[in-house]
Amino acid sequence: MNVQNNIGLTDGERQPAVQIAADDDAGAAPAAAVARLNQNPHKLAEPREMNLEMAIGRQVRELRKRRRMTGAELAKQTGLSVGMLSKVENGLISPSLTSLQALSNALNVPLVQLLQAYEEPREAMHVKAGDAARVERAGTRAGQHYHLLGHLGANDTGVVMEPYLIVLDSESDRFPTFQHDGVELLYMLQGCVDYRHGDRTYRLEPGDSLLFDADSPHGPENLLQLPARFLSVICYPQAV
């Protein structure tokens, strides 16, 4: 892999996101596949409020990725060398005002946006039991109750997440069809439903989960045991 393709990538990013552990006994099928995720949830990041260079570097890298630009492309547009850009993205140097202006022009953002991660607060939203807001989502049918479990405003992750508690009762429509951007995760809490995704149907019982591409038509098809309660988490790209 050349230098251009490695700009801003950590060791974890160079590897596949998920690795399936092989069974020690090649002749026997494992009872369950064990997924090893390379991302370390316990890894401590550099405190952004204490490191301006790191904050600038992360912001430049995120903006470049959102625009689907390679490091070589951004370096060419800014007049920086590939090596210099790599040092900027990894917070190893303090870029000059001239370099910051060139980066902001190439990324088509105000210069101050490159600094916004510095001392930027990280939001959290706590919703007490019973306090989730009742909402009406586009396509909601009779007997489908959506309770929004939290919402964060604009952030620099590039991702929007909508977590819902969905309750289906005896008056719920049987054949709703939803279709939207992003991916969706369902986790069944109570009841039993046959849930359709595309041309396949999955029976969901308490403890079951279903992760799918939400651009394909989907929705509960047969309501077998009511009331049915499940978590729905929808993720999609944040508008630039």
List key phrases describing it:
240 residues, alpha+beta, 434 Repressor (Amino-terminal Domain), Jelly Rolls, 2 domains, seven-stranded antiparallel sheet, two-stranded antiparallel ribbon, 6 helices, 9 strands, elongated, disordered N terminus
Describe the overall structure.
- There is one protein chain.
- With 240 residues, the chain is of the alpha+beta class.
- The protein has two domains: 3-115, lambda repressor-like DNA-binding domains (434 Repressor (Amino-terminal Domain)), CATH 1.10.260; 133-237, Jelly Rolls (Sandwich).
- Helices cover 21% and strands 29% of the residues.
- It contains six helices and nine strands.
- The protein has helices at residues 3-6, 11-14, 52-66, 71-78, 82-89, 97-107; strands at residues 18-20, 35-37, 133-135, 144-148, 159-168, 183-197, 200-204, 209-213, 218-237.
- Strands 3, 4, 5, 6, 7, 8 and 9 form a seven-stranded antiparallel β-sheet that branches. A two-stranded antiparallel ribbon has the order 1-2.
- α4 (71-78) packs across α5 (82-89).
- The protein is elongated, with a radius of gyration of 23 Å.
Which of globular, elongated, flat, extended, rod-shaped describes the shape? elongated
Q: Please tell me the total number of domains.
A: 2
- List low-pLDDT spans: 1-32, 46-50
Any idea of the CATH class of the largest domain?
Mainly Alpha
CATH topology of the largest domain: 434 Repressor (Amino-terminal Domain)
Along the chain, the helix and strand elements come as: HHEEHHHHEEEEEEE
Radius of gyration: 23 Å
Q: What proportion of the residues form beta strands (DSSP E)?
A: 25-35%
Helix content: 10-25%
Count of helical regions: 6
Using the 3D structure, state the CATH architecture of the largest domain: Orthogonal Bundle
Oligomer: single chain
CATH homologous superfamily of the largest domain, by name?
lambda repressor-like DNA-binding domains
